[in-house]
Write a structure and sequence with these properties.
- This protein has 317 residues and is mainly alpha-helical.
- The radius of gyration is 20 Å and the shape is globular.
- The N terminus is likely disordered.
């Protein structure tokens, strides 16, 4: 692997700009879709549970894929996998924009979340390759800014695009960002061959992913169908699978992540508070746009402006 200190300064910072643009797109897609939900509900004749899946499946796949993506990046090579994830993110964005049914939109959002799941950890790894230790804090600050800025901008930009064009435009905005980043990184990023042959915890990946999907499926069903075997069975199955995942992490020779991190009070409290904040943010962004349209008669852009204080307040918190 190339020494980060030997890379041309111009190449490093142009590559950082491309990575920041990519992270901006990832952040936008966390919140941009929500203001389009009332319009999508009419155009695709989507049910309430399907609307919830439009939002939740992106976050779900993203969360489930973060750890495996980091491990695979170390094994395969960050540049190759990052460019592949960029291509997947762009193709999935087009699929979302032109989805003709709720099932097609959910499937495209799954692919979009998978691409984002690889882009986030691999981008951090690439910063380590590109920058010397004394330059990394500045590079990471720009990376963080790109992610954080995208979240509050998402509702406003999404609302403007929906009002001016149609709801699919909120996804097509990703395509030029991804294309520009792909070209810059393909030309300027130094090769990054895999650096480890450590075994991949496929059992842990399967248990965590299946457990999250089953649990979320059950919880969404509870809100739509109420207490019934159709909703309780997957929810309970998800809890069991996640419990098995925790047990497996204690016994696996090469676990997906080290449970000893939770011995740190700061890590544990921070993870819990981040989880609560994320639940509050996603819940508010699901309910408020529909409330503002149905009760107040607001348009998509006006909805984006109205939810902006909520997003900003939660980010500050």
């Amino acid at each position: 692997m190339s020494d980060p200190g030997r890379s041309p300064v111009a190449g490093r910072w142009w590559s950082l700009a491309a990575i920041a643009v990519t992270m901006l797109a990832v952040g936008l897609n966390l919140t941009m879709l929500n203001v389009a939900l009332p319009t999508i509900a009419v155009d695709l004749e989507a049910s309430t549970s399907q609307l919830q899946w439009f939002v939740a499946v992106y976050m779900l796949v993203l969360a489930a894929g973060l750890l495996p993506a980091g491990v695979l990046g170390d094994r395969v090579g960050q540049k190759r996998l990052y460019l592949g994830a960029l291509a997947l993110f762009g193709v999935a964005s087009v699929g979302c924009a032109y989805a003709g049914s709720p099932a097609a939109l959910i499937a495209a959002r799954v692919l979009l979340g998978a691409g984002a799941a690889f882009l986030i950890p691999l981008s951090i790894s690439l910063l380590v390759v590109l920058f010397a230790p004394e330059e990394r804090p500045r590079a990471i600050a720009w990376w963080t800014t790109a992610v954080v800025v995208g979240i509050p901008i998402g509702p406003v930009l999404g609302g403007a695009l929906v009002d001016r064009f149609w709801w699919g435009a909120a996804f097509l905005i990703n395509v030029p960002l991804v294309l520009a980043a792909f070209i810059v990184l393909a030309r300027l990023m130094p090769p990054t061959p895999g650096t480890t042959r450590e075994r991949i915890d496929t059992v842990g990946m399967a248990l965590s992913s299946a457990g999250l999907v089953a649990l979320v499926h059950g919880l969404i069903g509870l809100g739509h169908r109420g207490m019934s075997p159709v909703t309780l069975v997957p929810a309970l199955a998800g809890i069991v699978l996640l419990a098995l995942f925790g047990y497996w992490l204690r016994r696996a020779p090469h676990p997906l992540f080290d449970l000893r991190m939770f011995r740190s009070t700061g890590f544990t409290v921070g993870a819990l508070l981040t989880t609560v904040g994320t639940f509050a943010l996603m819940g508010a962004l699901f309910v408020l746009p529909q409330y503002f349209q149905a009760i107040w008669g607001a348009g998509a852009w006006e909805i984006g402006l109205r939810v902006l204080p909520v997003v900003a307040g939660l980010l500050v918190g």
